[in-house]
Specification:
73 residues; mainly alpha; elongated
């Protein structure tokens, strides 16, 4: 289980750093989603929910690629 990209699977260092960032982002995303659900709700809350989830998915993947690229240079 985890952020399994070709880059994280190729390097233990990239795996660890990516998951360290990913864990923090997912906890933050969860907290924001709860707050948004309680405070905003409705259509705006729905849009923010998917925006937050999208960022929590994309940011660690891009970060892992950048780490791997720097490691291979």
């Amino acid at each position: 289980m985890g952020i399994k990209t070709p880059w994280t699977l190729a390097s233990e260092t990239v795996w660890q750093k990516t998951h360290r960032l990913g864990s923090k982002l997912w906890v933050l995303a969860g907290l924001l989603i709860v707050i948004i659900g309680l405070v905003i709700g409705g259509e705006k809350g729905f849009i923010l929910f998917f925006t937050i989830i999208g960022l929590a998915v994309v940011v660690p993947v891009v970060y892992s690629y950048l780490l791997y690229s720097r490691e291979k240079v």
